[in-house]
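Reopening: structure tokens for the glycyl-adenosine-5'-phosphate complex, inputs below.
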Amino acid sequence: MAETAKPLTMETIVSLCRRRGFVFPSSEIYGGLGSTYDYGHYGVLTKNNIRSLWFRAMVQERDDIVALDSAIILSPRVWEASGHVAGFTDPLVDCRTCKLRFRADQLEFEKCGRKPSKRPGETPDCDLTEARQFNLMFETRVGALQDESSAAYLRPETAQGIFINFKNVAQLARRKPPFGIAQFGKAFRNEITPGNFLFRVREFELMEVEYFVPPAEAPKWHEYWLEQRLAWHRGLGLRDSNLRLREHSAEERSHYSSATSDVEYLYPIGWQELEGVANRGEFDLTQHTQHSGTKLEWIDPDGNRYTPHVIEPAVSIERIFVALLCDAYDEEIVGDRERVVLRLHPQVAPVKAAILPLIPRDEGMATRARTLYEELRRHHIVEHDDSGQIGRRYRRQDEIGTPWAFTVDEQTLEDETVTVRDRDSLAQERLPIGGVRAWLDDALEQDWSSPRSG
Ligand code: GAP
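Re-run output (same inputs, fresh job):
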């Protein structure tokens, strides 16, 4: 096997996602709507896996975090209190010449409309306005009235739904600080310059934990969560050499944050934020206490009152999805043919195994393959594929990252064994057909690291 060492581009990932039905440009038959995407079958399965692995690590396997699912449209007063109406802005500049809009703080990464090889402001034709603040929240109307009183927002983060439910959860969840509330769900931001595929989109799925701690313990828990989240991303199989931590400077920090560090990933566009871990202090609970008149505080058994501080690990499925595909994408020459393979962690891979009758028209093979498939699909997402040459069927599964293929062949008819082919090593071994279910269950539970880590 020979590696084909081309630098990976985002276009390669976009094209694979399109070709194999992970992700499609949205509203395509109407000409598309810039930077919005629809997920096909394998995209949905991969997203489900990312979400449930996050939920498992953050809720299921912990004693101290409970789940919440708050509304997307909240009272607009929430966003006044949280500071989003006044402060959830990016600096925007217009170019009077090419009529494009840019983020003033990102000009070095933007492309000028008239001269794509140049940055905005770099050519004598560029005529940029002064920067002004642009609010990223999408406005909508609630109810039949179209006046000021009906204005509302699509949530730009799930966090505020958690803060406004602090009292409900703290009373009922029988937890005391340190404890957390976890929520995943859609968030919406009217980004000035979305782009780079799913990396920056206007509609994405956030997964956030607000972790409430005694104030003096906040720095300690901030460190703890940074380590936890970095380790979680490593556990998904992202290579160590492509992950790092970076602390925000004071100017970079959001209005609510007293300290933020990012877990960064080396995307094809360079090192970028994968997940943010912020110390939000007491900002949010204090703001909502003041604006709502409801005290959001903790009273310990001795009657001492305090406002917990908040540590917040927040990440979108989209940023993880892109990082995983970039990390997993590989091309190599096997024999005299190139193969594209997604070396995904088996728990992330959309399909866990393929069941392939070697000669589909052979009734014995066809029946055994179908029976095995029907048994396995009750427990895992698996595929039965009986169309085309076996080599082509393997290649198809390689491209969607299926870790194993079970092939029913002539020998199966003699001794009731099947071959199992490993996606990464291409090694094949034989297993009794009756033991496949247990073998797959066990293989899926094993720790995994990328064969490219070395
Ligand atoms: N509640 C805190 C918060 O929302 P953020 O840094 O603005 O913090 C959290 O966003 C995470 O959401 C980021 O680390 C990134 O993973 C993801 N994210 C932010 N904007 C995004 C966008 N436009 N498209 C995709 N993911 C985005």
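Residues 157, 159, 189, 191, 200-201, 204, 206, 208, 273, 275-276, 312, 314-316, 318-319 surround glycyl-adenosine-5'-phosphate (CB under 6 Å). The longest strand covers residues 270-281. Marking as resolved unless the reporter disagrees.
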